[in-house]
Design brief:
CATH topology of the domain at 88-172 and 179-307: Rossmann fold
Mean pLDDT: 81
Shape: globular
CATH class of the domain at 88-172 and 179-307: Alpha Beta
Distance between the termini: 39 Å
Strand content: 15-25%
CATH superfamily of the domain at 88-172 and 179-307: P-loop containing nucleotide triphosphate hydrolases
Radius of gyration: 21 Å
Low-confidence stretches: 32-52
Strand order of the largest sheet: 1-10-9-4-8-7
Number of strands: 10
């Protein structure tokens, strides 16, 4: 299967996921254009308008929200959907292993990433946090080359992932070894022991619990000591104790091996336990990013609300 085949498959899945919301947003936009609200009509609290009426929001690529695209969770009548997005990146004191530049991805009418910019530091555990459905998993699929961006670029150690041929990408992702069978066995056993699975060496996959499968996947990823390791919601489906143990394991292995670790999640406890660097993603763009302590102390209304699970603020149930 080629990367184009994978792209088509993921596009179909993502388009189905966002299709209903896109249709609802389009209906709202049509209603707005046919019957504008009275001047004294109150603005819905969940979708505040900007202070000045400058017409529909126009993205950096010239596309008009409501006509050319919709942003999941954002009223298409919104004039300034990114007023809380400073894009501020606080200095992390090192080099970036991964750089995302002006990344745009749209499925049908639903624009999931809208000019996203982000740098993920070398030799740190980075965490991308954000509300459900805001594009975190779509972002990680671009980093590993499972999705092509509509525009923008993804650089991994300076190499452009979207501009690679299938063969070049597979060479980056594929790892080889010339180690002998005995040495391979020692490495495998050591990794299984590190993740607490030394007693499960001979179990079949269907004999492993959900938590054990997560740890087995982690061990498999670590066998050849990769420079970059990515986790897409590793704490999903785990009880609090096993989540804490998994977080501790990630920190321990990273301390031993180094490299760029990227964790996608919306769990605040996981962020506090393992992250060195945090980026907050909302509506397809990074609101703010930087060292964990600084981002948790941010005065940005959205960042402060999300990272402290406050019911008051820009984010609502809509």
């Amino acid at each position: 299967m080629t990367r184009n085949d994978e792209e088509e498959r993921f596009n179909e899945i993502e388009e189905e996921q966002y299709e209903a919301e896109a249709e609802t947003s389009a209906e709202l936009a049509a209603t707005e254009s046919e019957a504008p609200p009275a001047a004294d009509a109150p603005t819905p609290a969940s979708h505040p308008q900007s202070a000045t009426d400058e017409g529909p929001y126009v993205s950096e690529d010239g596309a008009l929200m409501g006509r050319d695209f919709v942003i999941p969770g954002v009223d298409p009548r919104e004039h300034d959907p990114y007023r809380f997005h400073t894009g501020r990146k606080r200095d992390h004191g090192g080099e970036d292993a991964i750089e995302i530049i002006d990344l745009v991805k749209q499925f049908g009418r639903a624009r999931i990433l809208n000019g996203l910019n982000l740098g993920l530091p070398e030799n740190q555990v980075s965490m991308v946090l954000g509300p459900s459905g805001t594009g975190k998993s779509v972002l990680i699929k671009h980093i590993v080359g499972l999705l092509y961006p509509d525009s923008g670029d993804v650089l991994v150690h300076g190499e452009s992932i979207p501009n690679m041929t299938d063969d070049e990408l597979f060479e980056v992702l594929r790892q080889h070894t010339d180690k002998g069978e005995e040495e391979i066995g020692e490495i495998v056993n050591r990794r299984l022991k590190e993740v607490g699975l030394s007693e499960a060496t001979y179990k079949m996959p269907n004999e492993l619990s959900g938590g054990m499968r997560k740890r087995a996947g982690f061990a498999r990823a670590l066998v050849l000591e990769p420079a970059i390791v990515m986790f897409d919601e590793p704490d999903s489906g785990l009880d609090p104790v096993r989540t804490a143990l998994l977080c501790e394991l990630i920190r321990e292995i990273h301390a031993e091996n180094g490299g760029c670790y990227l964790v996608i999640s919306h769990d605040l406890n996981t962020a506090r336990r393992i992250a060195d660097f945090i980026a907050v993603l909302w509506s397809g763009k990074i609101v703010e990013s930087g060292p964990k302590e600084e981002v948790f102390d941010s005065s940005n209304p959205f960042v402060n609300q999300f990272l402290h699970a406050d019911v008051s603020g820009p984010l609502s149930m809509d």
